[in-house]
Amino acid sequence: MLRKISVRKRSAMLVLLVFGVLLGAACAQTESVLYSFCTQYDCTDGSGPMAGLIFDQKGNLYGTAYAGGSGIHGAAGAVFKLTPKGKETVLYSFCSQNGCTDGENPVAGLVSDQNGNLYGTTEYGGVDYGVVFELTANGKYTVLHSFVGSDGENPYGGLVFDQKGNLYGTTVNGGTYGKGVVFKLTPKGKETVLYSFCAQNDCADGALPYAGLVLDQKGNLYGTTYSGGANSSDACYGYYEYECGVVFKLSPKGKETVLYSFCAQNGCTDGAHPYAGLVFDQKGNLYGTTWLGGNNNACNTGGSGCGVVFKLSRKGTETVLYRFCAQDNCVDGSLPGAGLVLGTNGDLYGTTQLGGAPGDRGIVFKVSPEGKETVLHSFCWQDNCTDGAEPYSGVVFDQKGNLYGTTQGGGPAYRGVVFKLAP
Length: 423
Hints:
There is one protein chain. Helices cover 3% and strands 30% of the residues. By secondary structure, the chain is mostly beta strands. Among the domains are: 58-146, no CATH class; 147-323, TolB, C-terminal domain (Neuraminidase, 6 Propeller). The strands form seven sheets. A four-stranded antiparallel beta sheet has the order 1-28-27-26, with no helix packed on it. The protein has a four-stranded antiparallel beta sheet with strand order 2-3-4-5, with no helix packed on it. The longest helix is centred in the N-terminal third of the chain and has 11 residues, at 16-26. It is globular, with a radius of gyration of 20 Å. The protein starts with 15 loop residues before the first helix and ends with a strand. 53% of the residues are buried.
């Protein structure tokens, strides 16, 4: 599993000048922890959230925890609700059925329909290759689809609705060639594989889609694959595949077009291995992150760099807005594994899994349309990282401009937190 890749930690020792500069940037916003996971016996309240959050109209937050819960195995994850005041309620614990036929270990977050029903995926469970589930506002849990391999394996990414109520998503493995699929699921639970990756020689069409999808107004789907593409590089080797990933477009009828293949530039300065999904602006440009690439090598990831924020025009022209680890000791962040959210003024907001100071445990950042980066918060400022550590998910805005997200680590039990970042 990609998230278990070992990344050699760097020293967190900083000279006073660098520390002072970062302190000013990190204190630009005030962070507070709304909830720390595994504060209940045996982590029945959940543990290790890897996904982001969504709001309801009353300001309650909903999300998933990868582990914990009160299922039969006791560590298969949970769906939770968090009130604005930080009261947590577990809505469902996975692996509550024999054999975990109801699913286990949700990596991705949730989507909601107009009736308040929640939908998501689990990496494992079901027939053993993961499920798509529905959790109604009344608490009724239903497996809409259980993957069997030929139709996909291990859905990491979240789901997206079209106007007719169909759900779309990806699996990182499975399908005709074993390198993942894009699938469609009707409201009645009928699944159709729209595309199986690695249909072209050397997986030039992409392979291993970890992220979810976005839809345009014409029903075209856009996403990323972690590997595959037209470009291979030794700099990408050691992270599953030589090929460095793509951005793709898929028509409603399943015709795939590669919009961009990463590592097209020497040293992968344009980015490598996109792990997260994409976001549109009003002009139809796409924005995203790559987990590696950029060619700032201080994070010791094998030579390709520590990740980038990129923009992709509708014609497929890529522009790197920011290359991480441009500052000493990567105080500006490294390894952006989550997607972005677009602010009203065109600024992009996201997280990195590592980097920052003093703890090298990740940051929340802002990147302007011109490519200027600001560190909004560096995690592990508090003793024992009680403010959180290693955010694997992105952030979400409320109506007042506050940012909310999760970290997989940190908190009193080091099992993750839900945090709020106020302007």
